[in-house]
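Recap from last week: sequence in, structure out.
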Amino acid sequence: MNEVINILKLPYVWGGVGVLLGAGLGANDLSIWILAILLGLFFFTMKMAGPAQEGKEGKLFAGGSLLMLGWILAFSIRGILI
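Predicted structure tokens:
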């Protein structure tokens, strides 16, 4: 379980998932529901990570922002190209 939490602590994992979601589904109802579930999973991951540690909390919090940013950029690019 700790190995999974350690992987989910990486912000680029969340950003990549957001890009895949936005590029694959765009900005439709299903995509938004999946994004909401992923944000809930992100908050659960933060809870499981324990108390913030000096110098590491920025990397932990960046995952949620990268998830949203990756999703927005990917569905925007998808909308322009398709």
